Amino acid sequence: MKNIDTAFRHVRGFTMLVIVGCILISCFSLYKSFSLVSQMQNKVYILANGKALEAYASDRKDNIPIEARDHVKTFHQFFFTLDPDDKVIKSNVTKALYLADDSAKRIYDDLKENGYYSGIISGNVSQTIKIDSITIDINTYPYGFRCYATQNIIRTTSIAHRNLITEGNLRNVSRSDNNPHGFLIERWNTIENRDLGTENRK
């Protein structure tokens, strides 16, 4: 009887140990499964030119400085990249105006009224812009920015270089095909736009 009682206690203890072990293993497996699923939900695979590229999802606040700088850069490139073609000018300016409020529209209207775009077309002038740097203040909302750039005005016989500094604010708006960054430039104005020099074309 003692042997039976001892054997029963041993079997019961072993059974309890196995049950506790199974519960611990099950809990660990569930934890790892949820953790893996959460990690996989933050990954996106993009197929580009036959290659699978891995992308990671992140909160927008982590990308605000990068997206804001690219938004400002894109706006300035559309607004200031001009060729002696009315359709090109309208296309670029239209794309730029989707990214800014009426402060940019007023500047465009003033330039148009003063014959700036007509002069570009009649004089066969091309204008390009090189963004040197963009500073964004993300500590206050709307986010203030300042853009430092160099304009190149290409004429038949010469290339003029101008220094350009602009500033404004960025407000959050809904993303769209015309505004993929989800920002809107407000109170945009030019602080400085002066000649740096002119070089003759060979």
TrEMBL record:
UniProt entry tagged with the keyword Transmembrane: yes
Keyword flag Membrane: yes
InterPro entries noted in UniProt: Conjug_transposon_TraK (IPR022276)
PROSITE patterns noted in UniProt: PROKAR_LIPOPROTEIN (PS51257)
Transmembrane segments: 12-31
UniProt KW keywords: Membrane, Transmembrane, Transmembrane helix
Name the record gives this protein: Conjugative transposon protein TraK
UniProt organism field: Flavobacterium frigoritolerans
Gene name per UniProt: traK
